[in-house]
Design goal:
With 236 residues, chain A is of the alpha+beta class. Chain A is 47% helix and 21% strand. Chain A folds into two domains: 47 residues, no CATH class; 129 residues, Protein Transport Mog1p, Chain A. The chains are: A alpha+beta (236), B mainly alpha (210). Chain A: Keywords: Membrane, Transmembrane, Transmembrane helix.
Chain lengths: 236, 210
Amino acid sequence: MDDLEFRRRLIAEPYDDDEAIKQALLEGDNRQQFGKDMRALDDKIAAALNVDVPDDLANQLLLKQRFTEHKEQNERRKWIFAMAASVTLVVTATFALWPQPHANLADYALAHVYHEPATMTTLDENANLTQVNAKLASYGAEMSTVDGRIFYANHCDFKGKRSLHMVLEHQGQRVTVFVVPHIEAFKDTPAQFEDGRYHGVINRHGEQGLIIIGESPTLVEETSGSLEQAIKWQRI
Amino acid sequence: MVKDLELDQILITQWFVPVSTMELKKVRNKKQHSPVISDMNSKQQRYEALVGAFHKDIYRYAYWLCSDQAIAQDLVQETFLRAWKSLDSLKDVNAAKSWLITILRRENARRFERKQFDLVDMDDVPLADNDSLDAEATMEQQLIRRHIQMLAPEYREPLLLQVIGGYSGEEIAEALGLNKNTVMTRLFRARNQLKEALENSMDNRRQGNG
């Protein structure tokens, strides 16, 4: 290694411990001295670069990080709260507003009866078969005969579906009959039900259904039997 | 400088490794400790180790980049905050220092994107004195500092990376996106300027004394 190269390399990197440099350092006292000088200079430079560091810098760094962390956690917490609240809202709204296809048909029919108590006691519109059949036509049904009086026959809202609500007379007692189209939407309901006061049956005829509710099982069964014979069903 | 580097290494390896093994044991022995919380504690401890081991060097590097104590402190704050946020991306303990320097250099570059600060005249800046230096050594150190400050940035930064960062020529080349020969030339010129400045001042003094 020539002198120029030696000096260039040592000035650029005084602590270079490359073999070639080590070797070159041994080639004479001048080179040894130059090496020493350059390292001494480098130590001075290193010392000069070592400016004082503010005493509390480390603490400041930790403090700032803690603060930022805390702030971010708060923001994250707020965000989680917001998410939780909106999820809750959506779930609640869904349950409240979504039409429930599996709602219990029997319960709904009973509730409907309780909601209009007059139909089972005093109400009397004295309808005739022709009027009933006119209304039944839109449900694909036609009734040939009727045993007793017809106290009531009107369209009503049955869980979002237009249905026919009738109150018939059977052996001097009142029986409520619902004609419900698209009954297949209500799948979980048993064919027979009772709640202690009323008894009921559900007869399915393809898409349509007939719900009969009365105060005794016999009454319901007999009405059901006669209606099965009296009503002819068509697809709607 | 070499000693300092070794000390850093020892500190950081000692602080990093036991923390992670400790955490593992804790998780294994105490089921009620949530792994998430342990993980956060461990992250906190790693961060504290990082601050403890490197904040001085990072501050000094920042100081020589911007010649201003207040800006240097801000830069260091920003650097360590970013380091905290992406601490999980630091996989290799040995790379911690150069990782921090990389973040610092990026933060410094962002500072220039935002605003060009006026250069500070070194005569106005109260530079800290190291204690226990005699008058001549103090003067010499002030002189070196002044001349380091006067180095063109493209000469100064390789020197900072070499002396403060402990980088090799290749590593400096990689960090600055230069080839190694250019880096070695710049290091040579930087140190040569400092060397000449010192020699001149000594000559002057001798002449003055004579």
